[in-house]
Amino acid sequence: MKSRIFPLLLALALCAAVVLVVTAPQKSEPADSQQNPLDGREDETAPPPIPVEPEPAPSGEAVEIPEAEVPKSEPEQITPEPEPDPIPEPEPETPETEALLEDETTVADEAVEEPEPEPEPEPVPQAEPAPQDADNPVFSSAVQAQLDSMTTYELLTQMFIATYDGSWTTADYAANYGFGGYITFAEDYVNDTPESFRAGVDRVAAASKIPPFIAVDEEGGTVTRASKYEGYRSVPFDSPRNVYLAGGIEGIRTDAAEKADLLRSLGINYNLGPVADISVNSWDFMYARSPGQDAETTADIVAAIIEESQARGVAASVKHFPGYGAVSDTHTGLAYDWRSVEELEARDLIPFQRAMDMGVSSVMVSHIITNLDPARPATVSSAVVDYIRHTMGYGGVLITDDMRMNGILDFCPTGNGSLEAILAGYDLICCTNWPEQFPVVWSAVEAGTLTKDRLALSAGRILQMKYDLGIWAP
């Protein structure tokens, strides 16, 4: 009997121990413990303990169990489900994070393949304007329209500058010939006031189909016309040589501006200057009229005079190409300069080139014979015209010195200097003896020696010069 009871009691003790372990209260950790929050919890995946049932007593025998040792039934323990871990809040974005996001965005953008845009049609290249051909200039539409409406006779008369023989007589020339211009001398001012002289010029202009040049040699110094008389200016204009020595280039500018303003007030629109000759010897014919400086300084003086004059609507004419140097007076006879072309280019031609490059309205060519053409005076030399047009690149008006001077009359004794000048390529003929020379030229036109196209070329340059300076407008 005892052998059966002992194992039964042992089994009951084991069951009680298991129950005590399961139902024992859990020990709590301090609040500031760094232990993992899952530590101390029962493993959620572990199955609940299975109660051990006591073996039944053998039938017919009663088993006495002390009351204290009999386990009491306890309510079923419900293990609460653990609360879900809190979702961590996103950390604030740092510059590094923003950069990473931008990179990711860029990569994402790059990953998206955008359709390629259709190629735009390539623009048709525009041809650059061809450089001006000195032999075939392109005139403005207004000038070309005027040329197309002119007769051969009108084209030829535009190429002559005749004498100004008083306002009434000159107005008659204007009505019957329509010359391109008229040159005035000191005697044309002496008996007039500025007001009466201007009225006479206006009379001539009114009689002209196309407004004419009213020209003058107002150089200053030994060559003055209007300013020679107190009624026009208190003292004559000084020579550019003296003006430069006293006031430099600024003095030149002031003098040229005052000169142009006076001439313009009198109706003069064409000053046959500045002198660009370089003469170094006091006995040279052109010494007193020249600026008296080296080539570069002379070029500066010439450029300042041209700029101030033309800015005020008074055309300029740089003279006397290719430079007098030390030669004699062409008013009295033929003059020669046998220096080489290289010597001329190294000094005398420098002021002329500067004037051409800056757009001087015209270039006056002298009757001097040089190595540019050893056989003929420059005013009747096609070689000189070719040199100016192609070597120096000038496309403007070429005007001759006066065809009445002995320097050309000695070479052209038959009086056809004007004809030979036009045949050589000159545009504007300064011809104070026009009653003798103009008929010779017109006879050549009638004979077909001079064509209408040839005359239109020079008349076009003259009209363009007038148009550009505001002297004429259609």
Strand content: 5-15%
Q: How would you state the average pLDDT, rounded?
A: 82
Report the sheet with the most strands, covering strand number, pairing sense and barrel closure: 8 strands, parallel
Q: Widest sheet: strand order?
A: 9-7-5-4-3-2-1-10
CATH fold-level name of the domain at 141-468: TIM Barrel
CATH class of the domain at 141-468: Alpha Beta
- CATH fourth-tier homologous superfamily of the domain at 141-468: Glycoside hydrolase, family 3, N-terminal domain
Describe this structure in words.
The protein has 474 residues and is an alpha/beta fold. An 8-stranded parallel sheet has the order 9-7-5-4-3-2-1-10. A two-stranded parallel sheet has the order 6-8. Helix content is 40%, strand content 7%. Helix 7 links the parallel strand 3 and strand 4. The longest helix has 26 residues, at 240-265. It has helices at residues 2-23, 95-111, 141-149, 152-157, 167-176, 194-207, 240-265, 295-311, 341-346, 349-357, 382-391, 406-409, 417-424, 434-446, 452-468, and strands at residues 160-163, 181-183, 213-216, 270-271, 315-321, 336-337, 362-365, 369-370, 397-400, 429-430.
